[in-house]
Amino acid sequence: MKINITREQFYNFVKTDKDQDGKISKSTQHYLDYFDKYQETGKKAGWNWAGLLSPFWMYYRKMFLFGIVVAFAMRFFDKMMAKVNNLFQLGSLGDLLDFALSIVIILIFARYADYIYLKYINEKISKGKITGGVSKVALVISLMIFVCYTAFLIMQELKS
To answer: How far apart are CA 134 and CA 15, in angstroms?
Structure first.
């Protein structure tokens, strides 16, 4: 993928309220370092610890549609693994496989989260959006929805 934005445009998109008076926060510096590395080498892989919390990280970074897609994909994957487990009567082995595959997918996402974010920013800036930042409100709302949904699922399990 060709990145057709400048480092300054990228910085203006990723910066947060903590980036003021010439000081750059640790998270913003992380993204700037990745931008520089990608521009030099073209390597897509990196590491983003926040990417381990993929949908929540996406909501925080205002990648709302991506976050929704990832959340639904994770739920779909979980349902499909449950069906495979039931079909082949794998029991505990199926649960272990489901857990292991979920961990692998999350690790792969964390490995490429910076690249996904870079592509997202490049597309947004190319379309004329010049600022991004973060949304703590979206993060809190998504966490609240997750907690309520999880509580609902637990209550459903207890009823059956």
So the answer is: 8
Concatenating the DSSP letter of every residue in 19-83 gives: --TT---HHHHHHHHHHHHHHHH-------GGGGGHHHHHHHTT-HHHHHHHHHHHHHHHHHHHH
pLDDT, tens digit (0-9, with 9 covering 90-100), for 29-70: 999 999 999 999 999 999 999 999 999 999 999 999 999 999
Nearest CA among 88, 85, 65 for reference residue 77: 85
For the chain, report the end-to-end CA distance as a whole number of angstroms. 49
Nearest of 107, 124, 88, 9 to residue 49 by alpha carbon: 107
Contact 132, 64 (CB under 8 A): no
Query: What CA dihedral angle connects 121, 126, 127 and 129, to 10 degrees?
Result: 50
